[in-house]
Amino acid sequence: MEVDSADEQEEETRSQGGQAHGQVSRSNNTGATFNTLSSLSSLKPGEIPDAAFIHAARKRRQLAREQGGEAPLVETETPKKRLVREDQDASDDEDEEEKRIRFSGVKNKSQRQKIAEEIGIEGSDDEALDTGQDEEVSRWEQEQIRKGISIPQVQSNQPEDNTAYYQNSYDSQPYGSSYSIPFTYSTVAPQTVKPSGRADNGSVHYGASISDLTPVSIDLVKKRLQDRLSQMHAGYNANAKRYKQIDEDLAASESTIQQLEGSSNDNADQYKFLQEMRGYVGDLLECFSEKVPAVLELEAAMHQLLRQRASRLVQRRQDDIRDESSEFASLSNKAVMAPNLDSFGRDRAAYQEHSRQRRIAEREARRTRRRQAREQNGKRAEHKEGLSSDDEETSTDITSFNMERDRIIRECKKVFEDVVEDFHSLDCIKSHFEVWRGEYADCYRDAYIGLCLPKLFNPLVRLQLITWNPLEVQCANFEYMLWFESLLFYGFEEHSMLQRGDGDIGLLPAIVEKVIISKLTVLAEQVWDPLSSSQTARLVGFIHRLMKGYPTVLHGDNQYTQELLKTVVLRTRRTLDEDVFLPLYPKNVLENKNCGPYLFYQRQFWSCVKLLGNILQWEGVLSTSCLRDLALDSTLNRYILSALQTTDTNEENVQKCQKVVECLPVQWFSGLKGQQTLPQLEPLCRYLTHLASLLHRSTFGTSDIERRTTKEQVKEVVKMLGHMNALDHIITVAAEHGIKDMKPLLEAKS
């Protein structure tokens, strides 16, 4: 029997039974029942009876009992209601054609015999079948009742779904289960898969037996529920964690939104301020690009004015030395020279002689004025000719200098005359950047304004320093100028301190480095005269103050400081080569102390000693090796010692040597060990030893007073050797001249 034919008959029977049940009333039940019972003979062998067939059979038995006097089996309305529900389920099954039920049975026996064997009916007559059908109906009803109070487990050949573990629907229970027929069912798509219950040879295969299905126990259900609960807990925890993270992200986002909404106004204000500063700085730089060349021109004009005055004084000194040297050389050499005529036939020598006579008159007038000034001060006795600086100027030169200086000052005031105060006043410019620093410190720091301000303020500071000259007596201290006082407290707040990494800390040192030291370098090269003791003292004192006040600027590794010191050394060497001159005359010429050559020689000698003292003022500024080279090798041994060795005036030479030794720094000898002095001072020590011998020999045949005087001079020589730590030479002089009281001299040295 094929499944399709059985299904069609079953659906037909259900449809007829349902229509008869719904339309026929109780008055005409007898006629309808006989119509239905007439179809009982149409049941084919092996065909499974459906619900309508069973209902018709019950009606037939009921009529038979009523006619034969037998009591009815069951008179309840439940089967009718159940049959109605089954009819409705059958109609639903017609709509749902996605799945079909495939039955498998025994092919060797007919379906009728199989059902009879299962329900225990041996015969095949109608009476036995009726009896078996009654028992079967009763068993089917009991089975339906059992299904109503219990939930059976149907094991299918499909994978188990934990979410649909129990089969609760009524239509999911196949009819064959009521007959205890071994079966299996599977869902197949309609008209696509060939039924697998029947083989090609017509044999029927049995499905899995109900006894082979996995038994369901309470522990198994409990275990699966616990597993499911654990999974749900794990999912809940993950969801809770995710919810918490999302909640935190939401709170952070809301906080960020509030912060951005609150800072939007600040950013707008900052943007507006920066745009204003951008425009202001652009205008300021444009103004400076027009005015800075004028400032540099005025500064160069002032330097040129100072350089001209210094060059004029140096040139006058060189002309005086040349005139005196040529004058005294002509006295010793009377050679006749041919006249030197110019293009107009005039004698050049006569013209040069006229100029020379004019210079001599001016020179002698200056010396007379200085001599009178010393007499008024009471310093004539201790003064030596040549120690004074011949830097006096004529009234014409002074007037011309002052007029040009006043013109430069007036031009300085006119530089920013056509500029509003915001673009040339240090206070106004500084105030703009102070507002920037105070309100937007991070932006101010990121823009490196602290590194730009020294260059920005540079032109305004240089404009105020145009007439500043530390080599003059009446020179104002730059720390009391307006620019310094204005920038002194830049970036300083009352309740806060400048931090180490703040670039504004180095504002003033940077200006001192780039403006003050640069200007000082120009003045040292063009204006400073190393032969002037006053200028040298002022310059050295000013540099010492800078070293104490600005140690981060005035040190050997600074580029500007190195340039300044290099300029000082080069200017000193140029003076040694061009301005120092010591004439060499015969001894008979120098015997007359009132003659011109002797006075000229003395003047030049003391001028050289003054230069030695000026050079040694740089102790602590220049390096020791450089200073010793300039002072000892290039000045003392080259000029002074040569002049001392050419004269026989022993008494005067002792005094000259004392002045030379007094100039030597004490620090040079404090760290010496042993009995020897500095190598550069060995020639001077040998000369002093020789001078002591000459003094000792000069006392032969003299009076006691002269011998005592000579002995005191020898002791002075020993003291000078002790000052230079020349102990070996002291021992030689003491042994030669019998000096026994050496201990006080050595103690004085130590």
From TrEMBL:
GO terms for molecular function: DNA binding. InterPro entries: GCFC2-like, GCFC_dom, Ntr2. Residues 1-11, 119-135 have a biased composition (Acidic residues). GO terms for biological process: positive regulation of transcription by RNA polymerase II; spliceosomal complex disassembly. Keywords: Nucleus. Residues 77-88, 136-146, 346-365, 373-387 have a biased composition (Basic and acidic residues). It is found in: Nucleus. The keyword Amino-acid biosynthesis does not apply. Residues 1-170, 346-396 are annotated as: Disordered. Pfam families: GCFC, NTR2. Residues 15-42, 152-170 have a biased composition (Polar residues). It comes from the Eukaryota. GO terms for cellular component: U2-type post-mRNA release spliceosomal complex. Its main location: nucleus. Residues 426-639 form the GCF C-terminal domain. PANTHER family: GC-RICH SEQUENCE DNA-BINDING FACTOR, PAX3- AND PAX7-BINDING PROTEIN 1. Belongs to the GCF family. This is PAX3- and PAX7-binding protein 1. The lineage of its organism: Eukaryota, Metazoa, Chordata, Craniata, Vertebrata.
